[in-house]
Design a protein that fits this description.
Blueprint (H helix, E strand, L loop, with lengths): L2 E4 L2 E4 L4 E7 L8 E7 L6 E6 L6 E3 L7 E6 L4 E6 L8 E8 L13 E2 L3 E6 L1
Parallel strand pairs: 2-11
Antiparallel strand pairs: 1-3, 3-8, 4-5, 4-9, 5-6, 7-8, 9-10, 9-11
């Protein structure tokens, strides 16, 4: 199983980026998908998650109203549209797949992880 995240980069504060994550999961639509991030010296933290069909989403408070998670099951892809970016959003962003039936907001709830993509927001 492989999850490959891409789309990171350097952006000025207030700007936007869209991250993508392609999963080689045979039954992609059976997994909740999530995004996490890890800044230098900090623990990996939950950002957003989306249900199997994309009908329900959940975000950490710090990104509500600025980030949008979505998925395309036909393409085995999950997206994270990030807007109004702030320097504190700077981190390596990871996508992950979870088979849990509950809202997965902890790293232990996820079965598979991508390699991460760097997002740097300059002030």
């Amino acid at each position: 199983v492989q999850l490959q995240a891409f789309g990171g980069g350097l952006v000025q504060a207030g700007g936007s980026l869209r991250l993508s994550c392609v999963a080689s999961l045979r039954t992609f639509s059976n997994y909740r998908m999530g995004w996490f991030r890890q800044a230098p010296g900090k623990e990996r933290e939950f950002v957003a998650t989306i249900t199997w069909g994309g009908g329900s989403t959940y975000y950490t408070d710090s990104v509500k109203g600025r980030f949008t998670i979505s998925r395309d099951n036909a393409k085995n892809t999950v997206y994270l549209q990030m807007g109004s970016l702030k320097p504190e959003d700077t981190a390596v962003y990871y996508c992950a797949a979870s088979s849990t039936s509950k809202i997965p907001t902890t790293t232990s709830a996820y079965n598979y992880w991508g390699q991460g993509t760097q997002v740097t927001v300059s002030s």
